[in-house]
């Protein structure tokens, strides 16, 4: 097959491309230039998409003996990922930009372009497994990325390859070293790639400005003020800016965010427990269900897992949890999984409304 290998400049995509070559495919490497200021987008293991990453990707392609190109998708990334991220926080939500990047960039813009150019599939270094058209969790549970891939439709999965999903991370680094790839020891990128200094609040303040509001408790009593709801997320404990402790001396947590009035409600950790979730815009990876079904749900990239019953609705889904989860926030995705002997199958996902 003709395979387009997305080379981020990291070890995972390097080994994924190497495995595609070893399998006998005709492979072409492409690095995605997603930032308009690439010189600023790496600091240690934070960030990605820098000139350094593009150079590392080029060296990998050279070692593997495959053609290499750079595709500038910075305009699409700014509009479909960064702008949506900012707008979501302004609306009092907690978005996952990696999930949107997979949905809008890697498996929409890139895959569409690849198919138009005659490629059969796009190969990436995600930790997930594909088999019989089904998306499954990776063998390395600590690195599993199936949650951020749960936005992919069956027709997109049919043209995707995740060659490293059956291998644990230490073995991937060892394989890269054996191949002579300089990315073998390169630190993993983490956090939000377009906020390399990790200061999400500062990034949002720069773009949204000050939007003062009140911090209140469950009774509505004003405890303090803030500069904008974009500085908070449900479940947050630190950085609330309160000058006095709760009456019982226990920490307060963000329980709710109301963007129109600018009100942020705080309270005890016990009040974070959620037993039902409503979500919109479901995407079904393994076929549209014909009625309610039991499954396991996940509400964060790492953690937030519980048994549940999911009921499809005309406007989305209702998720009734078998055990309460804490810190569930609007804007997050809820992903649905089915237990399977070959590895948990991703059934789909939806965006949490409340």
Structure at a glance:
With 354 residues, the protein is an alpha/beta fold. The chain has helices at 11-22, 51-64, 74-90, 97-116, 146-149, 154-157, 169-178, 200-208, and strands at residues 2-6, 26-33, 68-72, 121-123, 128-131, 134-137, 160-161, 213-216, 222-226, 253-258, 263-267, 274-284, 293-298, 305-313, 316-325, 333-338, 345-352.
Top-tier CATH class of the largest domain: Alpha Beta
The fold-level CATH name of the largest domain is Rossmann fold
**Which parts are unreliable, with pLDDT below 50 for 5 consecutive residues or more?**
none
User: What is the count of DSSP helices, taking H or I runs of 4+ residues?
Assistant: 8
Family: Belongs to the MnmA/TRMU family.
Domain tRNA-specific 2-thiouridylase MnmA-like C-terminal: 275-352
Function: Catalyzes the 2-thiolation of uridine at the wobble position (U34) of tRNA, leading to the formation of s(2)U34.
Keywords: ATP-binding, Cytoplasm, Disulfide bond, Nucleotide-binding, RNA-binding, Transferase, tRNA processing, tRNA-binding
